[in-house]
Write a structure and sequence with these properties.
The protein has 281 residues and is an alpha+beta fold. It has helices at 5-22, 55-62, 96-104, 106-127, 134-148, 162-207, 218-235, 249-256, 258-275; strands at residues 27-33, 39-42, 67-71, 74-83, 86-95.
Length: 281
């Protein structure tokens, strides 16, 4: 089955219009291919009626579902559609560096699309079509407005008529692509934030802990001592400071070696730690 010439022209016009709206927000290429890999319409008209050669486009042309592919700083999205009874695949190539900015400017993009839809209403009225077309267009306009205001989870409801169904499906698929990319960015930011928080916690612990014995170091002792002095003065209550000396420790180092002396300090710290209350330092 071949796509009629007038249908090809209409498809090329639709692709060119959508590309003009989206190109400032990361869309680099937008084209439609059939199952044989023939380009039916392209955002760059010179590439129409050529054969795709990249592996992703060839695989997407023969696939039956949505495809994603990351390559360097670009994201390719392929969505199968049915255009006037002809099965084909719409493929968009986005610059990942622009996606985050594109999400932030979604409102203005969809307002532009809403303007196009208002023009469509004028064309429908001028053509003298029946009034039953106006209600689906109003539903489509409302959905586009909500998506443009940031509600990327909203979808256009099923609409009657082949052309309206094709347009609503395309809007829903593009909104789904933006929502998925936004969610990926949010998950990535959350993961990096958790990693930084964990790293800060470890660094803070290392800054106040003695590497040999695992107990608090001189810095933490001085900070806690100052705080306890202030609390004792405020509450008019005494507190105690214990000073412990290990007898003949130098002989242990001299006779058995410093590694044994280090182990003795670790064991002593562990024994003392078992005798402390939770409120003790």
């Amino acid at each position: 089955m071949q796509l009629a010439a007038q249908d090809t022209v209409a498809l090329s016009t639709l692709i060119a219009r959508f590309f003009d709206v989206q190109k400032e927000d990361g869309l680099r290429e937008l084209y439609v291919v059939d199952a044989q890999g023939t380009v039916l319409a392209h955002s760059h008209p010179a590439l129409a009626n050529t054969q795709v050669t990249d592996a992703f486009s060839l695989r997407a042309a023969k696939g039956a579902g949505r495809e994603w592919h990351h390559e360097g700083s670009f994201l390719q999205v392929a969505v199968p559609v049915e255009y006037r009874g002809y099965l084909c695949v719409v493929i968009g190539k986005y610059s990942l560096g622009d996606v985050e900015a594109a999400v932030a400017r979604t409102r203005f993009q969809w307002l532009g699309l809403a303007f196009v839809l208002w023009l469509l209403v004028g064309v429908v009225l001028f053509s003298g079509l029946d009034g039953w077309v106006l209600q689906p267009i109003a539903a489509l306009q409302d959905a586009v407005r909500r998506i443009g205001e940031g509600d990327l989870s909203h979808r256009v409801p099923p609409l009657p008529g082949r052309e309206m169904a094709e347009l609503s499906n395309m809007v829903n698929r593009m909104a789904g692509a933006l929502e998925s990319e936004r969610d990926n960015l949010e998950r990535s930011v959350d993961a990096r934030t958790r990693e930084l928080q964990e790293l800060n916690g470890r660094l803070e612990q290392l800054a106040v802990t003695d590497a040999l014995t695992g107990i608090y170091n001189h810095r933490r002792f001085q900070e806690s001592l100052a705080a306890e002095l202030l609390r004792a003065h405020r509450n008019l209550q005494p507190f105690s400071v214990l000073m412990i000396d290990v007898d003949h420790f130098k002989k242990v180092n001299d006779l058995l070696g410093h590694p044994i002396g280090d182990e003795l300090l670790r064991q002593l710290s562990a024994v003392l730690g078992q005798c402390l209350r939770k409120s003790d330092l």
